[in-house]
Amino acid sequence: MKPHSWALGLLATLFLTGCEVGPKSGQGFRLPDGDTEKGKAAFLSMQCHSCHKVHGVELPAPGSKAPFDVTIGGEVTKVRSYGELVTAIINPTHGLAPGFDAKKLEDPKRSPMPEYNSTMTVEQMINLVAFLHPRYNQLDPAPYYRYYAP
Ligand code: HEC
Description:
Strand order of the largest sheet: 1-2
Bound molecules: heme C
Strand content: 5-15%
Radius of gyration: 18 Å
Oligomer: single chain
Number of domains: 1
Largest sheet: 2 strands, parallel
Helix content: 25-40%
C-alpha cells in the first residue's frame, strides 16, 4: 500500500467514526444477546409483517395488509449494525431505510412506520434485533475497500 493511501484510509476512518462521538452518540452501546425465535414471535404479534417481508424467512399472511412492502435483510453493501436496527425500530424517522422511495409519502421526511415505543418491551426489542440482524448478507466489499486493497 502506498503511503498516501494510508493517509487517505486514516482520514476516511476518522471521518466515518467522527459522526459517532459526542454525548448523544451510540458510543458504548451494547445489547445483550437476544432470542431469535422470540424475536420472530414478537414480529408476528406486533404485525410487523403487514408491511415487511423478512429475507429468507417464511411468514404467515398478516391479519391485514398495509400499503408497504419493505423487505428486511437480503444482499446489502453494508450490514445494519445493532444500533442501526434499534434506531430503525424505535426512531424510524431518524434515517429512512436505504433504497426506500419516500416520494409517494404524504410527508417524505417522516417514516410511515407506526410508533411502538409505549407498547414494545425492551426484551421484545432485543429479540427483534436478534431475529432481524442475521437476515442481512454482506454483498461485495464497499468500493472504498476494493480501491485500496493491496
Ligand atoms: C405500516 C407499515 C409498517 C409496519 C407495521 C412496520 N414497519 Fe418497519 N418500516 C416501514 C417502512 C415504510 C420502512 C422504510 C422507511 C423507514 O426506514 O422508516 C420501514 C423500515 C424498517 C426497518 C429498516 C430496514 C432497513 O434495512 O433499513 C426495520 C428494521 C423495520 N422497519 C422494522 C420493523 C419492525 C420490527 C416492525 C414491527 C415492530 C415494523 N417495522 C413495523 C413500515 C412499517
